[in-house]
Design goal:
heterodimer; A: 433 residues; alpha+beta; eight-stranded mixed beta sheet; 9 helices; 26 strands; B: mainly alpha
């Protein structure tokens, strides 16, 4: 009986088919909404997620039964917060729990809107994104707004200022501008982890559209970010958008014409933009792993425990990218390896065979000590690779030096010529009169 | 005055040369040997000045072999010279035997220090 229980317990890990380092795509997603009308008004976005295999669990944000983790295990792999007005989450969810969720490597999508609560703003600030402090401010753009039948207050803007990254936004160019109506945020310029994916045009500013603007607005121009992403150092990805209506079916289906541009697009770029961005946020693109580090002396196959100075060695590593369903070979020409001891003595760019194997060969420098093979790869939009393998390097043994030093040949010659001269001289001295 | 001083130098040089011509042949052979050793030493010093003293032990060994050879040859010349009153009673064979033994020790040391 106890053996049966033991067997059952041992099988439990196999029964879980969720997020793991072997399959980094998220599977179970908790979606917290302000009201369930969002399920239908944003159904295009949710359906595209479901069609990619995600398991969405919809709950009201103040539902007392929601929980991110139970008994130390996380119940979900990713969290979508479409609840901009929520003052306090229900259940065991709060700002600290959400931040722990992200710290443990899970992804987060936060959408704020014109009536964003302090809680949502606080979560965004913890992630590195600062919304405009004025609670009634919206992003207004008098020359980049979306042309519509009614003359609005120009808070519905059409933006096409995308980040230039194929891995974040997909390789296909987004032709139509993206419709946006909501609040803007700014990023701290010293923060190296946040990226502006969709910026406002230089003529935009953040102010209350109903009241007269008396003081210069704090957020202006292209420094306003409409949609930002953060890739944390543990490779968790966070998407923060200032507009919830950006994700709605109405905006997905609507045509768009940017003010000042004669081109009228049939369909806005929202659907393509958000689908591609969600692929990136949920690790279907740009997630790398590096495996199988090998190094050996040229001509040998096994890995030595120690190298000697001036040895020729070969180093290879395999890098794969997750394509959403399988690991594909990653192809790039800027992966570098360092032979590092306090500073890199050798820095070489690895060449690839196209199948994910990166290799190079170089000569060990004329310095002995304990070195590391370091690969530190941080490319925009990709997970960071940080590999280090330690290897000692020894100096020559006493019998590994060259036997005769070419620079000293004249001295060798002189000594031997003296001996020969001595021999000849003795012969001459003895046998001459 | 210049012409007379250069004429004096020429006369001095000719007097030295004719006096030297009178030395016995075996002493002249020893002098030639000494010159060979000193010349080899000079070549090595010039080479070191050009290239640097990297295997310093080899340089010292090469120069010392030349200098030691020259010194021992000079000792032999002193002892073998018949006009030298100090060594009148020393047999030239004894001087030569000393010379050979000292050279053997010198070359042993040189070979060790040469690297």
């Amino acid at each position: 009986m106890s053996k049966l229980i033991l067997l059952f317990l041992a099988l439990i890990p196999l029964l879980c088919s969720s997020f793991s380092p072997e399959t980094p795509s998220d599977r179970r997603v908790l979606v917290l909404l302000d009201d369930f009308a969002l399920k239908s008004s944003h159904s295009l976005f949710f359906n595209s997620l479901k069609s990619r295999g995600f398991d969405l669990h919809f709950h009201l944000a103040d539902d007392p039964k929601i929980a991110l983790q139970r008994y130390g295990q996380y119940l979900f792999d990713a969290l979508i917060l479409f609840s901009p007005t929520i003052e306090r989450f229900g259940g065991s969810v709060d700002a600290a729990a959400i931040l722990d969720f992200v710290d443990s490597g899970h992804d987060l999508v936060v959408a704020a809107d014109s009536n964003a609560s302090d809680l949502i703003r606080e979560i965004a600030t913890e992630c590195g994104v600062d919304f405009d402090e004025d609670p009634a401010a919206l992003v207004v753009d008098h020359s980049g707004y979306a042309v519509s039948a009614t003359e609005g207050d120009h808070t519905l803007i059409a933006s096409d200022d995308f980040i230039k990254s194929d891995v974040i936004l997909g390789s296909k160019k987004i032709e139509a501008p993206v419709l946006f109506q909501g609040i803007g945020h700014s990023l701290n310029p010293t923060n190296s982890l946040v990226l502006k994916v969709l910026s406002a045009s230089p003529s935009a500013f953040s102010a209350n559209p109903k009241s007269k603007v008396t003081t210069p607005p704090s957020l202006t121009g292209s420094s306003i970010s409409l949609v930002s992403v953060i890739q944390a150092r543990n490779n968790a990805r966070i998407l923060i958008s200032g507009s919830l209506s950006m994700f709605s079916n109405r905006f997905f289906r609507s045509g768009v014409q940017k003010a000042g541009s004669p081109i009228k697009h049939e369909k806005s770029g929202n659907e393509q933009f958000l689908n591609e961005l969600s692929k990136w946020v949920f690790h279907e693109r740009g997630h790398l792993k590096a495996v199988n580090v090998q190094h050996h002396k040229v001509g040998e196959a096994n890995e030595p425990a120690i190298y000697r100075i001036n040895d020729n060695l070969e180093y290879s590593v395999e890098v794969y990218e997750w394509s959403g369903s399988a690991w594909e070979p990653y192809v790039a020409d800027d992966v570098q390896v360092q032979f590092y001891m306090m500073s890199p003595y050798v820095l070489k760019t690895l060449s690839t065979d196209g199948k994910g194997r990166y290799f190079t060969s170089f000569k060990v420098p004329d310095v002995y000590g304990v070195f590391q093979f370091k690969v530190e790869y941080e490319k925009l939009g990709y997970t960071s690779l940080s590999l280090a393998k330690q290897i000692p390097v020894r100096p020559f043994r006493h019998n590994e030096y060259e036997r005769f030093i070419p620079a000293a040949y004249p001295y060798y010659g002189a000594a031997f010529s003296m001996m020969a001269g001595f021999f000849v001289f003795t012969a001459v001295h003895l046998y001459s009169k | 005055m210049a012409r007379s001083s250069s004429k004096d130098a020429q006369d001095l040089f000719r007097a030295l040369w004719s006096a030297y011509a009178a030395t016995p042949t075996n002493l002249k052979i020893i002098d030639l040997y000494v010159l060979f050793a000193v010349f080899t030493a000079l070549i090595q010093v010039v080479y070191m000045a050009l290239v640097g003293s990297f295997p310093f032990n080899s340089f010292l060994s090469g120069v010392l072999s030349c200098v030691g050879t020259a010194v021992l040859a000079v000792c032999l010349r002193i002892q073998v010279n018949k006009e030298n009153k100090e060594f009148k009673d020393l047999a030239p064979e004894r001087a030569f035997a000393d010379f050979v033994l000292c050279n053997l020790v010198l070359h042993l040391v040189i070979m060790n220090f040469l690297g």
